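Translate sequence into structure tokens.
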Amino acid sequence: MKFYILAIVVVINITANAQMYVGSAYYPEQLSKERIDKDASLMQEAHLNMVRIGDFAWSALESEDGNFSFEWMDNAIHTLQKKGIQTLLCTPTAAIPKWMCDAHPDIMQVQVDGQRKAYGRRRHACYNNEAYCTYCVRIVRELAARYKETPAVIGFQIDNEMTTEDPYCYCENCRMRFVEWLQKKYKTIGKLNQSWGTTFWSETLNSFSQAWLPRRMDNPAIYLDYQRFFSDCTLDFYRMQRDEIKKIAPRMLCTTNVGGGGFVTTIDLYQLGKECDVLSIDNYPINCTVENLYGNNVGQPFEPSMVSFALQQIRGGRKENIWVTEEQVGRTALTQREIVPDGIVRLWTHQQLAYGCNMSVFFPFRAFESAHEHLMVGVVESDYVKRDKYQEIQQTAHEVRALYAKTGKLLPIARAAIIRDFDADWTFENGYTFCPDLKYLREVYAYYKALRSRSVMVDMVSPDADLSPYDCVIIPYLALVAPDFPEKIETKVKKGATVVMTCLTGVRNKEFHKFDGGVYQPLQRLAGIEIERQEALFGRKHNTLDYVDSTAICKYWFDKVKPVQATVLSRYNGAYFKDAPAITCNRVGDGKMYYVATVPEQKVIDQLMNVVISETSLKPIAHHASPLMEIAELQDMKGNSYLYLINFSGDLQQVVLNYPSNDVMTGEEWKAGIVSVNPMEYKVLRIKKQV
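Result follows.
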């Protein structure tokens, strides 16, 4: 595939807020000064303007306890800066030096079986170990003090992909911290026992000091608290480093890179977002998907909606820019489920910009010669020959920087929201909970995909989020609800919103106690139904339902619903609950409340979303037929509307546009009607009518 460089001169503001950063993860500790100088020229030629360095460089920075060496980093930052390349520094705390482990073997995490982890990996030190935290604070202080006045350094990435690899620790330090956490939360041991239901299986505690660290399949209320606790420990670890940086270098932006393609379930990303100046994601659209999270080793074809699902989850409904601190270039060090097609990296970089990303960091710049990630494809291979990957990145960097210079800051605009909750994520993780085969995030994605395939922009938000900007709210499988949640939803519906709520929403309170009647009664009343019975079924079996003149499969969970005020839209027609309602709709004030009593296959969700869109104000500015066509709606800081059209397919795609527009880069005028997008190409249109 050929790539062409456009002859466009772009002047870009170098301030952190106005800048569009396109760069690469770089490892100067592995290279000579001469090589770094040549790399800087290669980066400049590729239109890269930043690097991310230092994430695994602790032993290079501190070869022995207290013996610091920063000269190699000084040289790299200075050499790159001369070529117009700025630096995002990383704290190196995710991979500890061997001397530290030798001096303090108890730094290593303890596994659930009681065995201490051996040295030789990364992220295997315990966040609650005092010696480890002391070393972390010291190296962070040294870095912040040395580079606080360095203009080329724009900020810090703290640690690396926290909690992505078997993160839970079962050491005594963690148990004692858990005891303190429980004391702060519950105040009295009686309240803890009541919340955990410890009279069952004779688990009653006489004091907080008796608390243990639970395992998966233990009492679900205890395990849920442990998951909440460990998320808080991770947040504390981030704050510890951030606060040290801010005390010394307050101008520095602080972030941390969320791993797993954004599909991390072991830390509350909504809470993390509140702590970061910018929230960042590592985007590996081929190798890190929802299916990867749930152990699918077969592979999954690329879906643009899954990338935007991750990006919108990281955003969490906030109207702020995000960063992509690692971006897949090609083959990775993981199991190769799919081959990265030529040209697709360019397009998903545009997709990142379409979702408000103003930093894209390709990983890595140079392929590694050896060690853990020797399989990773880089912008250049270890021989530095400028092959197709380099040419694709060169074109990509030039395009997105030129586009950003034209538009300035762009942010996605959504009128629909899906509530995703980390308590629900953690609840479904425990094998004792509901149906083990129901994978929470996979089923949440089914609703997101249905809306995005119809070009409806969607925010992913927490149960506590302000819902006022949204005309439609989807509440899938929100197992644990706060007492005031039904009132919040009722207020929203009465004002004219459409709400879709699924089974397993409101089956427990926040302490994991069952509600009378199976589902929180205020939610049943709002849906206009009564829940008469609830059943689960493992994944190899299924039921069927009728909807929109066809029969479809439904799985995992089945509510037997009695309509009180609601209208029945679908009924079961299989072996279980035959003729009982499966989907209902209740009018509440000026709005509607749908209830989905089971977990239907995708086509049912698609059909239901068609109905929802037709009766709300969600009609998109443009629409299309291909699942490989991305249409994102954005606004600039002046309120101007834009459409980002990205064609990930090998065919010409036609988009139906409801308003006149002009092409941002070429100025070409488009009337309302058909806009064509060439195979593996994009357009950015400014909409002339404000919407």
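Note: The chain has three domains: 21-167+234-407, 416-614, 622-687.
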